[in-house]
Write a structure and sequence with these properties.
Elements: E1 19-20, H1 23-26, H2 42-50, E2 68-71, H3 78-86, E3 91-95, H4 115-131, H5 135-138, H6 151-169, H7 174-177, E4 180-181, E5 194-199, H8 206-212, E6 217-222, H9 225-237, H10 248-251, H11 254-258, H12 263-267, H13 271-290, E7 296-300, H14 301-306, H15 308-319, H16 325-334, H17 350-354, H18 357-360, H19 363-374
Parallel strand pairs: 1-4, 2-5, 2-6, 3-5, 6-7
């Protein structure tokens, strides 16, 4: 089992401590509280906090106790869905903060019989994710106007992000850059802010996070295995993901054992089948954990692409967010992009993206994926699929 990142991710873990850029200028004000710092080792800081040691940055206020948590396998549309929620003026968005945190405190794959025991650690870890403000977690564009940040604050924050992007373009070690916190420059009542966290790495933590935050709203986005596997293979060819893929964690899960998977057996399979089983185990575990969440929704990526405005409204209603013109404008722009799209870009032709795998994936690979899907309960989410 791999404890620090998703087994197909190529991004390295980042170091432990950071100070927010401009922190000396702003930490005397409430603007930087509590989100303007890069959190460190979850386990070490959790132990320090519970010994009564001082915390790195004072945090007298927290956002709403009803965070919105978005989960999905990599290349499943999580970034687009995350930015849809980010487009609401009252949300504070964190893009994959668990990829920045040293996550050796809360297990990446939580034991299924230890949910209650892990709830205090999960609560602390969720707070850390909300406070982790770095180029990785707040940098992905576009940026949006916020009700709790004025025009000057937005310009300062966007300028800080742009400066860090310039540093990253020079070839400076990304881990060093992610030591630099980006101030959120909050104004107003923090309790009115809705934290949104998007993750593709914490699919083994959902039950623990749901247990520690009973008022949270959880959303899982499912992409069909053909589209997801095709996208990961494309990314692997571009050096975006690790290759060969880590397989031991799959065989060690309850889901893997149920399907009779072994590390040796998986190692003998072609990459397309290895990735399909990875897709199966990830999504089966997330769906299982989601049953323990008091408030959760599952949406298919192709469903969202077919009618993004309609389904985004429904998800906002579920999350307790009002509809806003800024969100409508973002969806209209992001779902109808024409021309080439970068690999991690959220602007693309949504409907064309759904079936792009049919043009790029060999028929024999499509059949291999279909054969595996038929062996799982996940086939019920695509009752009309054809080889």
């Amino acid at each position: 089992m791999h404890g620090r990142r998703h087994p197909t991710r190529s991004e390295p873990s980042t170091p432990r401590e950071g100070r927010p850029i401009l922190s000396l200028a702003f930490e005397a004000t409430r603007w930087t509280q509590p989100f303007g710092w890069a959190a460190g080792s979850a386990l070490a800081a959790f132990r320090a906090e519970n010994r009564g040691a001082p915390r790195p940055v004072p945090a007298p206020a927290e956002p709403s106790d009803s965070p919105i948590l978005i989960f999905g396998a990599p290349r499943s549309g999580t970034s687009w869905l995350g930015k849809i929620f980010d487009s609401h003026p009252d949300t504070l968005y964190r893009h994959e903060p668990d990829a920045v945190l040293e996550d050796d405190g809360l297990p990446w794959l939580c034991p299924e019989d230890a949910t209650s025991e892990l709830a205090p650690m999960a609560a602390w870890y969720l707070r850390q994710m909300g406070r982790t403000s770095t180029l990785k977690t707040v940098g992905p564009g576009p940026s949006f106007a916020k009700s709790y940040r004025g025009a000057l604050g937005r310009r300062l924050r966007d300028g800080t992000v742009q400066g860090l992007r310039v540093l990253a373009a020079t070839g400076l070690d990304r881990r060093r850059i992610d030591r630099i916190g980006v101030p959120d420059l909050l104004a107003g009542n923090p309790r009115a802010i809705r934290l949104v966290v998007k993750s593709v790495s914490s699919h083994g933590r959902i039950a623990a996070l749901a247990a520690c935050a009973p008022d949270a709203r959880l959303v899982l986005i499912l992409r069909d295995p053909w589209g997801q596997v095709a996208s990961v293979l494309r990314g692997t060819a571009r050096g975006k993901f690790l290759s060969p893929f880590e397989l031991a964690w799959i065989a060690g899960t309850t889901e893997g054992r149920r399907h009779g998977l072994t590390t040796a057996g998986l190692g003998a399979l072609p990459p397309v089948e290895q990735l399909t089983w990875n897709w199966v185990v990830c999504n089966e575990r997330m769906l299982s954990d989601l049953t323990q969440a008091p408030a959760a929704r599952v949406i298919r990526y192709d469903t969202l692409c077919a009618a993004p405005m309609e389904h985004a409204r429904a998800l906002f209603d579920f999350a307790g967010l009002g509809w806003h013109p800024q969100t409508a404008a973002f969806i209209a722009r992001s779902a109808t992009h024409r021309g080439p799209a970068r690999y991690y870009q959220v602007f693309r032709d949504a409907r064309a993206t759904v079936d792009s795998w049919r043009r790029e994936m060999p028929r024999e690979d499509q059949a291999r994926i279909a054969a595996i899907l038929r062996r799982t309960a996940l086939a019920s989410y695509w009752p009309d699929f054809r080889d």
